[in-house]
Amino acid sequence: MNEFYRDEWVWITGASSGIGKELVKQASFQNAKLLLASRKTKDLEQIAKELGLEKGKYAIEKLDLENYKQVSIFTKRCLKKYGVPKVVIHNGGISQRSYTRETNLTTIEKIMNTNFYGAVELTRAILPEIKKPIHFAVISSVAGKMGSPLRSAYSASKFALVGFFHSLRAEEEKSGVFVTMVYPGFIQTNISKNALQGDGSSTGKMDSVIESGLPVQLCAHRILHAVANNQREVVIAGIKEKFGLFLQTLIPSLFFKMIQNVKVR
């Protein structure tokens, strides 16, 4: 058991499902004090009940990342109630499964607001209150390193997170603000079922590449391990995704041809 998390506040956005839910479970085993944040508070309450979380060791707060202009209000309220956390895990987000030519601007805005601006506003609201070291774990994606079909807005939002938090790290690491960028590949969650189509509706379908991806338990374990060990970056992906990253770096011309025909559903 890692003492890094013991009795320390860990805030997790998007905690009601997928990677976020598993992070809650595994961080609770590390004796962390958990702030579970999501739009779906009933689901959070059910998670807390299932895990038998102890009173005083967790809190549930409603958070709508898409409504990013209100995120600072959420943050200030939580800071007043619980103090500055040791770890903030920016996990909340939504994916996409649509060609760019079929995707309306409203859908693109929804993805950017949820995945990027929500995390940015939460971070900005915390920064003035920091008086001791803090760790931001930012769940980007392999799609935040390379673009692929059907994910233009999603990929853009994940690239944006990388640029923002790389800059923040360069500015603030000497002051005790540590950033771990996390790049998951295909992980066994409902991300593809909840992904948006071009008109903003959910696909309701499980991608075969997601269904055969890495276990969510492994992903959450590696995220918590990376944070506790001050890793600046961690790629959590299978052979195909890692090969794509390798190819993009060493033989980009070949990569750009291959990615046009790769199976991404």
UniProtKB/TrEMBL annotation:
Write down a Pfam family by its short name.
adh_short
User: What InterPro entries has UniProt attached to this entry?
Assistant: NAD(P)-bd_dom_sf, Sc_DH/Rdtase_CS, SDR_fam
Single Gene Ontology MF annotation = oxidoreductase activity
Cellular component (GO) terms are: membrane
Keywords (A to Z) from UniProt: Oxidoreductase
For this protein, the record's PROSITE patterns field holds: ADH_SHORT
Per the similarity annotation, which family is this?
A: Belongs to the short-chain dehydrogenases/reductases (SDR) family.
Protein name, UniProt field: Short chain dehydrogenase
Q: What is the lineage of its organism?
A: Bacteria, Pseudomonadati, Spirochaetota, Spirochaetia, Leptospirales
